[in-house]
Each structure stands twice: as C-alpha cells, then as structure tokens.
C-alpha cells in the first residue's frame, strides 16, 4: 500500500521488479521500500509512506500475515543485529490444525474449494468476492470476528462454529475482535470454472465420438481443430475450443516429460541449473558494476537485466510459445 497526502492506493510491485523473492525476507523488503522511495520522486511523489500486507502459508499452516501492515517500512527500523519488530510471529500454536485441514478438505466435493485464514487481534482482512464465486461463505474455527459488508455498512459478529454467506461482487472486511488470534475459512464454488470444465468435458466426449465413429454428423468449421489438434488452425472466435486445445497440449506435455528418458531428464536438469547459475552470475556482475562505476542508461540496464533473465526452454516449449504468440486472443467473448 502506497500512501501520500494526495493519494492512497494499492501498489503494483511488478512495475519496478520482476521477482517476488523480496516479499519473504525482511531485509529485502526494507531495501525494496527504500528503493521505491527514491524512484517515486521522479513521479512527483515525495516522502511516501509504504505499507506491505503479505500473506503466506508456511508448511501447510493457516494463511497468515508476514509483516505488520500498519508499519511504514520506509521509516521502520531494521538491523542484522537485533530482531525485526515489524515481522509478525509464526502462529505455531495453531499447527495442530493441519491435521484437521486434511479432514475438512476430504469432506468437500470436487467443486468446492477452501482457504484457511488466521489473523492477529486488532487487524482486519479486506477481501473481494468475485462474481465468479457465486456460493462463498465464511466459517469461524477459533476466536471471534466481526464481518462488515462494505456496501451495506452492516456488521455481523461470528464466534467459533458460526458461519455466514458472503455476497458476490462486493467487498467485505473481517475484523479479529477476540483477545487471541482468530481462525476462519472461506468455502467457495467457482461457478465459471465449473461451467468451463463441464463444457471442456463435452468437447472431449464429442472428440471421442468422432474418433470412434459414433458421431456421424459433420463437425462445424469452428470445431474442426478438435480433430486436427492444432492450435494454429483455430478459429479464434471460439475461445472454448482454444481453451480445450491448450489444456490438451498441457496434458500431452506433462505426459511427454513423464515418459522422458534418463538422458533427456538429465539434460533438462543440467540446462535449468546452468541458466540459474548464469542468471546469478550476470545479476551479481551487473550489481557490482553499478556500485563501482555507476548505473548505465536505463535502456542499457533494462536490456542487460532482460538478457540475464533468459530462462531455459526446450525445443518443444519454444514451439508452443511461438504458436501462442501467433494467435490473437478474442477480447471479450463469453464461453
């Protein structure tokens, strides 16, 4: 979150960096906030306040905050010689819940997903329920929370065992009002994904009928790629067929890797490690050069970083990538 006397809004970290490693390390987070403070001066934003609300799940525990979201990281203290006060503690007392998580997940049907949340007293989670999630509810597992439906300006107090339905397409806030941490879970059904999966299943059944001869009617032109299997032959006006073919291609790619020989697996492993070490060496060289003799023009620096970030791709991956780039996606089409 970026705060300034004239604006307050969520900040997109991808604007200035292509990696997310910094969010998991307090020292890197402090460095990133300091760098942002300097860079934002070019956009007429002076003395910004920068807050981070980072959520993680460590070793299959609850999703919990990693840092105190009320602390301005620009002004926050950090030293390698003492404990960082704005790093939130790991809620190890809730670790026994991990066995219960598996029981809850096993009791759900294939169409229902669950997210487990734990939060600290005095803090709140602001969340938005997408319209795709037409059946979303919150259930308290431990502690006490107050759920605010922002649009209606209504609050509902929930204790352990209580649950309520959440409106889709709206924001809500979950305040932890109990003396200790609260634990709750979101249960939701992605109706759009479920409908898409049903449509993809129908396409798979249609393809099997054509292949075994039980479907005698000729396929319309937009469904011909089901038989050829080539994405580049696709009529892009039908995004459903595009989604089906791309899913089939991912399945084929996973099957190809499973059936790879020992030599092919070793070659892939070696190449990935080589590109990883190559990136580390080049990025270190660029950083040292910048510290010793200064930064080059931004265009040159961007080109150097892009060259260092090149990832390994086997010939099949390169072919698939070229095919994807040659296809123009439909902008707004209902599946």
- Determine Rg (CA atoms, Å): 25 Å
SS-based structural class? alpha+beta
User: What percentage of amino acids are in beta strands?
Assistant: 15-25%
Order of helices and strands: EEHEEEHEEEEEEEEHHHHHH
CATH architectural grouping of the largest domain: Sandwich
CATH topology of the largest domain: Jelly Rolls
Biggest sheet strand line-up: 6-13-8-11
Number of helices: 8
Main sheet: strands, sense, barrel: 4 strands, antiparallel
> What is the CATH homology-level superfamily of the largest domain?
Jelly Rolls
In words, what does this structure look like?
The chain has 335 residues and is of the alpha+beta class. The chain contains 8 helices and 13 strands. The strands form 4 sheets. A 4-stranded antiparallel beta sheet has the order 6-13-8-11, with no helix packed on it. Strands 7-12-9-10 form a 4-stranded antiparallel beta sheet, with no helix packed on it. A 3-stranded antiparallel beta sheet has the order 2-1-3, with no helix packed on it. A hairpin with a 2-residue loop joins strand 1 and strand 2. Helix 3 packs across helix 5. It is globular. The two termini are 35 Å apart.
Which keywords apply here?
335 residues; alpha+beta; Jelly Rolls; 4 domains; 4-stranded antiparallel sheet; 13 strands; 38% helix; disordered N terminus; gamma-glutamyl carboxylase activity; RmlC-like_jellyroll
């Amino acid at each position: 979150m970026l705060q300034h006397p004239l604006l307050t809004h969520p900040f997109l970290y991808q604007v200035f960096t292509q990696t997310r490693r910094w969010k998991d390390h307090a020292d890197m987070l402090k460095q990133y906030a300091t760098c942002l403070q300097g860079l934002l001066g070019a956009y007429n934003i002076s003395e910004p306040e920068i807050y981070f609300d980072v959520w993680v799940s460590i070793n299959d525990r609850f999703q919990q905050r990693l840092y105190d979201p009320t602390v301005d990281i620009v002004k926050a203290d950090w030293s390698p010689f003492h404990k960082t006060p704005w790093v939130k503690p790991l809620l190890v007392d809730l670790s026994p819940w991990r066995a219960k998580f598996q029981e809850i997940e096993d009791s759900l049907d294939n169409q229902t997903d669950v997210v487990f949340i734990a939060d600290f007293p005095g803090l709140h989670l602001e969340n938005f329920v997408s319209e795709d999630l037409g059946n979303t509810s919150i259930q308290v597992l431990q502690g006490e929370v107050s759920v605010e439906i922002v649009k209606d300006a209504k609050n509902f107090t929930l204790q352990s065992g209580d649950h309520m339905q959440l409106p889709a397409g709206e924001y809500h806030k979950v305040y932890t009002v109990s003396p200790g941490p609260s634990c709750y879970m979101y249960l939701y059904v992605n109706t759009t994904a479920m409908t898409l999966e049903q449509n993809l299943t129908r396409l798979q059944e249609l393809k099997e009928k054509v292949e075994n001869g039980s479907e005698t009617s000729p396929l319309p032109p937009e469904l011909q790629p089901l038989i050829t299997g080539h994405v580049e032959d696709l009529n892009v006006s039908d995004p459903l067929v595009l989604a089906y073919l791309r899913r089939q291609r991912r399945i084929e790619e996973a099957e190809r890797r499973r059936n790879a020989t020992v030599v092919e697996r070793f070659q892939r492993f070696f190449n990935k490690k080589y590109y990883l070490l190559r990136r580390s060496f080049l990025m270190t060289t660029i950083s040292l050069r910048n510290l010793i003799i200064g930064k080059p023009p931004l265009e040159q620096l961007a080109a150097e970083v892009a060259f260092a970030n090149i990832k390994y791709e086997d010939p099949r991956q390169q072919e698939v990538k070229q095919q994807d780039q040659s296809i123009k996606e439909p902008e707004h089409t209902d599946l």
